[in-house]
TrEMBL record, chains A, B:
The keyword Membrane does not apply. This is alanine transaminase. Its EC number is 2.6.1.2. Its cofactor is pyridoxal 5'-phosphate. It catalyses: L-alanine + 2-oxoglutarate = pyruvate + L-glutamate. The lineage of its organism: Eukaryota, Metazoa, Chordata, Craniata, Vertebrata. One of its GO terms (biological process) is L-alanine catabolic process.
């Protein structure tokens, strides 16, 4: 009987043995074991448990609002007006927010945020994005039909990789990524069963991208796979460097020569803090290299509502601009996007505000500008402070945080601690970060989750806590690190 | 030189030849060629072009607000309050909306909708969903830790399939789906390179699911693949049937016997129109079959903000409940979800309102209830009307629209028209629908996009247009069909 058969072979359909092995291979450190542990400690404290600290400080993820950053008023006004259009009659909402909301709603089916948009996004928002890009890039043309709204940048990155990574012979498609990298890339590569081709950023040179290292990685990879795409994160995550124009030129020349698709993750384009650094978009640099390059290199660049000065992660807004894509492939891209119907409309509306902010002659300009400057100014201060305090700790070395939202300091872990970690079957920096969490309540992510040169150890921390909390955090890191070194007898 | 090499082999990196063939294989009729054509005609009319009609009526997609359905006020109030919490001070928002918004925000990092939530969703919303399911299923227990918020139901369905469909030997994983089906399923199967195992619904019996057909399909599939999962859509899309309790029992018994994972797509659970039909959740039926079943069959069921009486497609809200999943696999599921960070927060908030609507003692109850009844009452009227008018046309036969939002009438296409279509390299029902579009401006989707028995032809139309517009639409379909039959000499 069925019940007899069932009992004989009592086994689930979906087990660790039958699970898609590519899912098993995925790692995502930013929300990995250490973050799960942090959540458990938080619960334990809430329930009255005691620890040597009263609070867990989560510096593991670029989640600005969770760390107390306030939303930009104008952005929220526009989204609220779109959500509940009866507010159009309310005198407490400014006209400049109202006309933006009206315009967005006119682009929506039934004038409602509840309709599906076209799969690439609401047409007027795509046009606003193209206009923004043209202005940002000082006149380099942008065609709105090359703009695709996305569900955060991650969604766009996964979609483009999905086109490039062939199923059947996927184990032969090479995807070049920086090391250290944001682990979305390695996770997507695992999920799609592509070959991860590492190129190492130069820690001794402020995490700059070294073109010789690109060639080395490419040549080595060609022996066992077909590298088809190069991913760049600029400003860097987790490394915080801002790429020079010269370096971008070199990367683009390399991609042109070797016929690689270029994916440039530019979600931190508004997060540049060091006065002698400037954000250069890959597209603008490509344009300036001349039509031979600008009309041929296939480039997808990504932006998001989650970072910058807005930090609207929860809206899952973003876009990608794709140039030089084969028109037939473009039709396939649209088809693939259409299966998931459309990105969330509130996120699309939020994206529209970012690319179409209040202008100097508009009512909301002053407040918007103050809020924006205040967020970016505070981030610049915290970037500097983080670098300074960390570099004053013996056994910690931190490159300048030129941009983005993270410090990625190198930490010296004494050989005895390395041994102890290995005996526990743990990466040494995981061991370090777990101890840091257990003893101080500070949650940072081990460098091994992002990749690093063998024998070097790092952690990633965000610079998002308030300046007061950040000082507490950095002080605790310093004290912990010194006592950790002492414990393992690396300081006399 | 590089430039020379480039010119010699002037070829893009990403072409139709190098594109991931699994992407190429994806089809998604709901936004397919006929819908693209409809968009072109719309543009043409806007620009002053003339056609035998003045307006394109899009009945191709379940996009309620685009067809004029009004949002539920209370839902939008709660989401607007979450988006712009300064509205908490506004006397024009009711207290019951405010306390819900406050409660949601308390579950968000920094009390902001702009924070990432935990990857499975905001905890209090997961709890509200579990409470809703328990109430819906008359006491059958629901554990909030089995609830995962999703980006629309599609996202959840893709995620569960991703776990089940193994990469390397994916060509061996069988996924059983109904025919006709909602093409998300076939698209996902193509993208993941699984084997589509068709079981045919019984058109002569109101599209009921016939258990013997399930066994037939399963046995046939076992000869060339390993069927691991069965998908059911109830109420049916595109077919509109509501499954009987007995039929659900049979499916669950079959899954239990053959050790299949069950995916039950229940996004139309609130859309039941025929008085003698009732929605039974797969989970409740499983419970009533006894602990032997309830504690073993692996079941994922899906819901959404996009359908029901809210029709909030643009919010991309949804959830899945997953029971009897192996705990280790569950950890893998959470890891996979975490790579995409979290579902959009506005969609999560919208989902919360659906599962936690105003109660009889609350201020907003009356208006909420009126709006809900009005939407569902109109849909029931339109379901009836559609069936009646279509069945009065010679050569069209339409099963009762018991639930969901679509009619899927069978259309007789005369042999001469079939020949003409084939000469054009076109499916006969595509030929029919294109003619319908060109001559009347009505956009419906050919049955071939959903699957149908060989030699039968259908189209799917939504019942979402207003009753006035629906009458116009149905009248035009009738006139077109009669003249189509005449043209191809099927009527004397």
């Amino acid at each position: 009987s069925a019940s007899y058969r069932r009992n004989m072979f009592l086994k689930k359909t979906l087990t660790m043995d039958t699970l898609n092995p590519q899912v098993k291979a995925v790692e995502y450190a930013v929300r990995g074991p250490i973050v799960i542990k942090a959540g458990e400690i938080e619960k334990y404290l809430e329930e009255g448990g005691t620890k040597p600290f009263s609070e867990v400080i989560k510096a593991n993820i670029g989640d600005a609002h969770a760390m107390g950053q306030q939303p930009i008023t104008f952005l929220r006004q526009v989204v609220a007006l779109c959500t509940f259009p009866e507010l159009m009659d309310s005198p407490s909402f400014p006209e400049d927010a109202k006309w933006r909301a009206r315009r967005i709603l006119q682009g929506c089916g039934g004038h409602s945020l509840g309709s599906y948009s076209a799969s690439p996004g609401v047409e007027c928002i795509r046009k606003d994005i193209a206009a923004y890009i043209e202005q940002r890039d000082e006149g380099v043309p942008s065609d709105w039909e090359n703009i695709y709204l996305t569900t955060g940048a991650s969604d766009g990155i996964m979609t483009i990789l999905r086109l490039l990574v062939s199923g059947k012979d996927s184990s032969r498609t090479g995807v070049m990524i920086p090391i250290p990298q944001y682990p979305l890339y390695s996770a997507a590569i695992s999920e799609m069963d592509a070959v991860q081709v590492n190129y190492y950023l130069d820690e001794d040179n402020c995490w700059a991208l070294d073109i010789n290292e690109l060639y080395r990685a490419y040549q080595a990879a060609k022996l066992h796979c077909q590298p088809k795409v190069i991913c760049i994160i600029n400003p860097g995550n987790p490394t915080g460097q801002v790429q020079s124009k010269k370096c971008i030129e070199e990367v683009l020349h390399f991609a042109y020569e070797e016929n690689l698709f270029v994916m440039s993750d530019e979600v931190y384009q508004d997060n540049v803090y060091t006065p002698d650094c400037q954000f250069h978009s890959f597209k603008k640099v490509l344009y300036e290299m001349g039509p031979e390059y600008f009309n041929s290199v296939e480039l997808a660049s990504f932006h998001s509502t989650s970072k910058g000065y807005t930090g609207e992660c929860g809206f899952r807004g973003g876009y990608m601009e794709v140039i030089n894509m084969d028109p037939e492939v473009k039709a396939q891209l649209v088809k693939l996007l259409s299966v998931r119907l459309c990105p969330p409309l509130a996120g699309q509306a939020a994206m529209d505000v970012i690319v179409n902010p209040p202008q100097p002659d508009e009512h909301s300009y002053k407040q918007f500008h103050q809020e924006k400057s205040s967020v970016l100014g505070a981030l610049a201060d915290k970037a500097k402070l983080t670098e300074q305090i960390l570099n004053a700790v013996p056994g910690i070395k931190c490159n300048p945080v030129q941009g983005a939202m993270y410090a990625f300091p190198r930490i010296f872990i004494p050989p005895k601690a390395v041994e102890e970690a290995k005996a526990l079957g743990m990466q040494p920096d995981m061991f370090y970060c777990l101890r840091l969490l257990e003893e101080t309540g500070i949650c940072v992510v081990p460098g091994s989750g992002f990749g690093q040169k063998d024998g070097t150890y790092h952690f990633r921390m965000t610079i998002l806590p308030s300046i007061e909390k950040l000082k507490v955090l950095l002080g605790k890191v310093r004290d912990f690190h010194i006592s950790f070194l002492k414990e393992y007898s690396a300081l006399e």
